[in-house]
Amino acid sequence: MMPFKKFLIVDDDERFALLAARKLEHFGKCYTAESGEEALLYFQHHAQEGAPFDAVFMDIEMPKMNGHEVVGKMRAIEKQMGTGPAKEFKLIMVTAHSDVKNVSMSFFRGLADAYITKNNFLNTVENELRSINLTA
């Protein structure tokens, strides 16, 4: 059995974030943030406490700061703290869309480890976690 993980779910749709947290609670402790700003506060605080998140589930389309921007800032925080590649958080981009532009931006710019559409989340998240070594 792998050690318990810690997940940050970032989505401006509170209902989806809570649904995702309920699905993921069997695999790790879940924190939810409803904005990029809130997510960055959680992310930085936990990293500074020496207990960083194992994975971040990031909604792409959010008001003020989109998911790609938030991820960029999170990666910059990791770099600033000297986090090595093996210790960087796993990134799972989550969106209502499955268009090629968002998928390619997520993987190539955001260095995403997985991409899940919201309408498929409950059915696919467990397999995605397994494929990126976040579950047994």
UniProtKB/TrEMBL annotation:
<feature type="domain" description="Response regulatory">
    <location>
        <begin position="6"/>
        <end position="133"/>
    </location>
</feature>
<protein>
    <submittedName>
        <fullName>Response regulator</fullName>
    </submittedName>
</protein>
<dbReference type="Pfam" id="PF00072">
    <property type="entry name" value="Response_reg"/>
</dbReference>
<feature type="modified residue" description="4-aspartylphosphate">
    <location>
        <position position="59"/>
    </location>
</feature>
<dbReference type="InterPro" id="IPR011006">
    <property type="entry name" value="CheY-like_superfamily"/>
</dbReference>
<dbReference type="GO" id="GO:0000160">
    <property type="term" value="P:phosphorelay signal transduction system"/>
</dbReference>
<dbReference type="InterPro" id="IPR052048">
    <property type="entry name" value="ST_Response_Regulator"/>
</dbReference>
<keyword id="KW-0597">Phosphoprotein</keyword>
<dbReference type="InterPro" id="IPR001789">
    <property type="entry name" value="Sig_transdc_resp-reg_receiver"/>
</dbReference>
